[in-house]
Amino acid sequence: MTTNTTAVSPRLHYIYDPLCGWCYAAAPLIHAAADIAGLAIELHAGGLLVGEHRRAITPQWRDYVLPHDRRIAELTGQPFGAAYTDGLLCDTAYVLDSEPPISAVLAARVLAGGAGRAGLALLERLQRAHYVEGLRIADPVVLTELAVELGYAATAFADACRQMAGAIAQAHIAASRRLLQRVGGQGFPTVALSLAGEAPQRIDIGRFLGRVDDWRAQLAVALASVLPAETGTAPFCAPGGGDC
Predict the structure, then answer these.
(1) Which domains does the chain have, with CATH numbers?
(2) Which helix (H) or strand (E) holds 16?
(3) Interval 44-67 mean pLDDT
(4) Confidence band (pLDDT; 50, 70, 90) for 97?
């Protein structure tokens, strides 16, 4: 998925990672944005835990992320399941790897003919699988099972995931990080709005966490000049997982 600054329709560019807790915090805001008719959603995966930054679960990692998770739950109401807090985060044999779920989101978009909302639907399912159900979303079998829940054919999805993995996913991550730099983002989540072909401008999404109605109102104001009237400093995860 490449940045498109020449399209006539407004586009919300969402720079995210499937394993970023603060992206999970922002999920209700992105979902609300996707409900706005005429606003395209572009997903750009930044690769929080990829390559040498993949991270094995350790007691230290669990102690590090749990306070962030509690803060996210308090701020946004996003749920964290016991299968995650007392299961996944205690599994020292598991390695957190962002690339397989990123490849899955890319595959979902390809199979849906380029529809951004198809990738978003899978991303939301992956986040719930990870943070609520404690599933291992770096496992290709798990990824395929979740995609089948959303109506994808198992064989076609698994094949598409393999095609998106490796060089294609890595090129996508590199492009996403270049976009992050261009819009002045510090980490994930970062959002930027492009109106009628203009260069994307960053919006401070962090101040809207847990305030979905205010977020909708902010977007309505920003989009007022390009959409019909009826449509109406942030916490983040740094690339490499140094702050999440």
Answers:
(1) 11-231 (3.40.30.10)
(2) strand 11-16
(3) 97
(4) very high
